[in-house]
Amino acid sequence: MTDEFSGQVVLVTGAAQGIGRAIVRAFAGATVIALDLDAEGLADVGTEPGVVPTPLDVSDEAAVEACIGAVVAAHGRIDVLVHCAGGVRGQVGRPVETVPEADWHAIMAVNATGAFLIAKHVAPVMKRQGSGRIVTITSGAGLRPSLTGIQAYTAAKHALVGLTRQLAHELGPHGVTVNSVAPGFVRSNPATERQWESYGPEGQKRLMDGIFTRRLGTPEDIAWAVRFFASPRSGWITGQVLSVDGGRA
Fold first, then answer.
1. 244, 189, 88, 52 alpha-carbon torsion, rounded to 10°
2. Which of 72, 100, 126, 145 has the maximum number of C-beta atoms within 10 A of its C-beta?
3. Among 5, 27, 153, 229, which one carries the catalytic annotation?
4. Cα 236 to chain center, whole Å?
5. What is 126-165 written as a DSSP string?
6. How far apart are CA 92 and CA 212, in angstroms?
């Protein structure tokens, strides 16, 4: 680990557990604003050096605007934004005709609308600086049907891929790159543990047999890809989606 992010200000949404927490750790040496609704998880993350735990509902625009304003007032800049907040909000796959509209909106709000809102309020800061990195965390579900079977999750992650590419086009002239990491199956939180268990031994074997490397990913696998997109080495890469999934048959 180098100190290439020393002195930088990094925002990470969905920072309290799993992949988000690994991303926070990957930016050791920076000032990391760890954003999440999970106050208990944030308190634990906040014990790490340089981490500023900050509760935030990314689907609440007034809260997002106030948060970004406070970060800029305190630190003067934002160098990196990683939008990792998302997930299935406790839902399971069901036939489309049985899904309540409220459940659809709940997943869209945190995965897609939240990404839009935080980018909306971070983009002017990065444009004034003439530099910045935005990295979204989508999913294999943003590129193909989802293993979860949840229609809103698949739609939201596809939307996030589209938003990433559109923002890359819009912000590129201002020195800001926008890329996405699409994780494969990672057992990183209670929801993915439940999903893994639901497959049973045969389904787990089928999933493993379809991965070239014959192993599941780890949160750290995803965090290293994010760190690359945030680094100077990726300065001429934008609008891209990197699948970090061990290869898929």
1. -90
2. 126
3. 153
4. 21
5. HHHHT-EEEEEE--GGGTS--TT--HHHHHHHHHHHHHHH
6. 27
Average pLDDT of the segment spanning 216-235? 96
- Beta bridge pairs of residue 181: 137, 242
**What is the pTM for the complete model shown?**
0.93
Torsion of Cα atoms, 54 then 57 then 58 then 61, to 10°: -110
Give the pLDDT band (50/70/90) at residue 25: very high
d(C-alpha 14, C-alpha 24), whole Å? 10
The label of the residue with tokens 């990094």 reads: 10
Strand partners, 30: 28
Which of 137-141, 195-199, 217-221 reaches the highest mean pLDDT? 217-221
Of the ranges 5-19, 88-102, 196-210, which is most confident?
Answer: 5-19
User: The dihedral of CA 73, 75, 81, 86: what is its sign?
Assistant: negative
Query: Does residue 199 carry a catalytic annotation?
Result: no
Question: In this structure, are residues 132 and 188 in contact, taking their beta carbons and an 8 Å threshold?
Answer: no
Token pair for 2: 């180098």
